[in-house]
Amino acid sequence: MEDDTETRDGANGTPDSLLPYDQWMEDALRAVVARALSHVVTEGVLPGEHHFYITFRTDYPGVNIPARLRQKYPGEMTIVLQHQFRDLFVDESAGVFGVNLSFGGVNSALTVPLAAVTAFVDPHVQFGLRFRAVAPEADVAPVAAAPEPAPDATPQIVSLDAFRRKRD
Question: For the structural domain made of 21-146, what CATH number should be given?
Fold first, then answer.
């Protein structure tokens, strides 16, 4: 007799997946970040009142930031792309973006792997995404809260946690 019993994860009774759907979803949503940044590169400017808050792991492999910023933000930092940024680029094949920003009046070039991004928010349209980035020293990095929007705005944050299987 054939055993038709499915393996269940126990938390919500769904079968364990042999396909990495959660990772595929994160990859697809990171592509949204890349496309938004690429749009700005192509147009040369952020359209209308759009602006981006991008939070990323500074300790993620491949993050290239000045030592003073790494010292000030040893785990995670948020940058704002709004009025004053230069040399924005996106290399989707390498999975990185870069930008030149001013911190305390000092120009700084940053190169960030898209996999290091933990949050992307466009407060103008109340759009946001949160991601998990695997930190070099831990299995899963904590997800920091994105910058607070204006008090009268409630951003639509898409969190993948609702779609992830809970593990014991």
Answer: 2.30.30.220
